[in-house]
Each structure stands twice: as C-alpha cells, then as structure tokens.
Design a protein that fits this description.
With 170 residues, the chain is of the alpha+beta class. 29% of the residues lie in helices and 25% in strands. It has helices at 26-41, 126-139, 150-169, and strands at 46-48, 58-61, 71-80, 85-90, 100-105, 107-113, 119-125. A 5-stranded antiparallel beta sheet has the order 1-2-3-6-7. Its cofactor is Fe(2+). One of its GO terms (molecular function) is peptide deformylase activity.
C-alpha cells in the first residue's frame, strides 16, 4: 500500500471540484486502500481524494478510537436530518495544527457506494455526521477555513505559507 502526499492549504488544487466515479474498479479500490493507509499514518479520521490530488468523489474515514471501523464513501451525498446545527472544533490533514469551531448539522442521512460499488444508506450523528460534512466539502473544493472570518482565514494562510517556506529551506 502506498502512502500518498497530502496537499496543504493554500494549495489551489484543494479548490478543485471532484468528478463522480463512473465505475468502481480495481483502480478505485487501490485508491481507497492507499487513502486509508495515508489517513491512518497521518493520524486523521477522514480523507477525501481531493486532498491527495485525485479529483474523484472518494472519501475514507474512521472515527473509531482504535481505527477498526473504516468507512468508504464513493459518490457520497448527504441530506440534513433537521435544521439544528452545532459547532464542533475541526481540524484537517490539509491544514495541520489549526483548529476552528465550524457549525454543522447534528445528523445527516448519507447515500454512497461502498468499496465494491454497492449502494448503501446510513444515518449519522455526532462526530461521524460532522466528519461526513467536512469531507464532502473537500469534494466540492471547500475547506473548513472558508467558514471563518476573512481575518482568521488570512492569518492561517500566512502561517501555512511560512510553514511551507521553512520546510523548503530545511
């Protein structure tokens, strides 16, 4: 299994809207496996294909404490179950070391294809619902910093640019 490079903000490729997967084949399953390895290695709970510079509608996540419940979502769509939103502190593998409160729907209904291309439906709440919405945003080219004020977003952008410069100079 290959560990993939994770794009970091403010890389413009993170703004690319992902295309639907037409056929779930061995190439897509290999991408899923590589994304799961990458996510676990980075100690994350979710990863969208956009974050590894593959602009297809594929998401992996695992919100379990022991990384034992991987969830694969191909061509995901969600519907809020109710109007209530709640802020939760969010981080992102593409914006390391930065966190912010982002309001999300408390519960959602998810429809997607699994690793084998079989359709499934799932009702989610709590952290899983938050994560589904966060990763779905990635497929749309949206980052959690887009929910922040321009001042906070610009501050994070400058810190990330400084981080990238330091990494290049090292």
């Amino acid at each position: 299994m290959a560990k993939l490079a994770i794009l970091e903000f403010p890389d413009e490729r993170l703004r690319t809207k992902a295309q639907a997967v037409q056929t779930v084949d061995d190439e897509v399953r290999q991408l899923v496996d590589d994304m799961l390895d990458t996510m676990y290695d980075a100690k994350g709970i979710g990863l969208a294909a956009t974050q590894v510079d593959v602009h297809r509608r594929v998401v992996v996540m695992d919100v379990s404490d022991d990384q034992s419940q991987p969830l694969v979502m191909i061509n995901p769509q969600y519907t809020p179950l109710g109007d209530t939103q709640e802020p939760l502190s969010e981080g992102c593998l593409s914006i390391p070391e930065h966190y912010a409160e982002v309001p999300r729907y408390l519960s959602v209904e998810l429809k997607a294809l699994d690793r084998n291309g079989e359709p499934f439906t799932l009702e989610a709440d709590g952290l899983l619902a938050h994560c589904i919405q966060h990763e779905y945003d990635h497929l749309e080219g949206v980052l959690f910093v887009d929910y922040l004020s321009p001042l906070k977003r610009d501050r994070i952008r400058k810190k990330m640019e400084k981080r990238h410069k330091l990494m290049q100079d090292a």
